[in-house]
Amino acid sequence: MDNPCERLAAGSVGNPCETLVPEVTNKPCETLVPELAKTPCETPSMKMPDKSCGVPNPNATSDRRNFLKKTLCAFASLFVPNLVAASEALKNAPVWILAGGYKPYEHYWGMGIDINKCIGCGRCVDACKTENNVPREPYYFRTWVERYRVRADGDVTVDSPNGAINSFDNPPPDTDVIRSFFVPKLCNHCDNPPCVQVCPVGATYQSPDGVVLVDSDYCIGCRYCIQACPYGARFLDPVTRTAQKCTFCYHRITKGLQPACVEVCPTQARVFGEVKKKASPLQRFLRMNKIGILKPSLNTEPKVYYANLDVEVN
Predict the structure, then answer these.
(1) Domain ranges of the chain
(2) How do residues 202-243 score in pLDDT, each as one tens digit?
(3) What is the number of other CB atoms lying within 10 angstroms of the CB of residue 33?
């Protein structure tokens, strides 16, 4: 090959690059590196995994979204199992709750108890056990009645023989007792229920109408809710081995009936109704009486309200 310098010195007007690589001034990419002339889409080695000709792959985007959605759901179920199970329980609710046209979102139930009217007859306890098939053995109660006797020295005695299902015996005269009264108790159907918070499987949940219920199909009998209830209103059913409690006779109120304990009370010491409707008997009860609740310091926001509640009651 001739020396380009010699050719220039000899008066050559040609470009030395044209002499060495004749095609360099025309299509250098095609001449030097033929593959560069192709577009990225035409070169298999240069294709992006999730893009085609610069346009995002919609299938890849959908896959990523589904993966994130499933991951977040799984993560949430570990920390808020109550929400997951409660939503599943509400899906089954229309099968038996809504069959008669009952609309849970249109109600918000509560109960009032006038301590001055309670005579400790125990009819409410007996009616509750009969209506809800509660075992007749002692210590299994959805509702019970306690008797408080306050002595002059400030000492308080509380008793409830067999939940007062057979009323109370007449104690011998005691001149030290200056005051005596009866207090019916039951699940308080709290707006901030501890039992719902501790249930590991979401078997205990709050319905839209404010009633705290237990789904026996979900309950595993771990007793966490029994320990968490500050009112001692739960027990483990000896037959089903699941947690049981007062439900305001939910199977009755969804049909427009009163709870069994309210219906049989001879002195109308119990009042059941809507918490938020001004024309409700419960609202009239709340307006006309000095109202107290059990253990207000716990911030459970109970929906069982007591009229004339004594400070000795806990």
Answers:
(1) 1-8+16-34, 38-79, 93-197+247-307
(2) 999 999 999 999 999 999 999 999 999 999 999 999 999 999
(3) 9
Burial of 247 (0-12, 13-18, 19+ CB in 10 A): buried
| Share above pLDDT 70 across residues of the chain, in percent, rounded to a whole number | 68
Rg of the chain in Å (alpha carbons): 39
Q: How confident is the model at residue 33 (pLDDT cuts 50, 70, 90)?
A: very low
> DSSP per residue over 228-266, as a string?
H-TT---EE-TTT-SEE---SSHHHHTTTPPPHHHHH-T
Looking up tokens 């005269």 gives: 173
What's the CATH architecture for 93-197+247-307?
Answer: 2-Layer Sandwich (3.30)
Q: What is the pLDDT of residues 127-145, one digit of tens each?
A: 999 999 999 998 899 999 9
Residues with Cβ within 8 Å of 8's Cβ and at least 6 positions away in sequence, in order, are 16
Residue 174 backbone class (left: φ over 0; alpha: ψ -120 to 50; beta: rest):
beta
Q: Contact at 8 Å (CB) between 271 and 111?
A: yes
C-alpha dist (Å) from residue 97 to 90, 100, 107, 175, 253 = 10, 7, 13, 53, 10
- pTM here is 0.70
The string of DSSP codes covering 278-304 is TTSHHHHHHHHS-EE-S-GGG----SE
Residue 270's CB is within 10 A of a number of other CB atoms, namely 24
pLDDT, position 3: 53
Are residues 282 and 272 in contact, defined by beta-carbon separation less than 8 angstroms?
Answer: yes
Cα 293 to Cα 281: distance, rounded to the nearest angstrom = 18
DSSP code of 150?
Answer: E
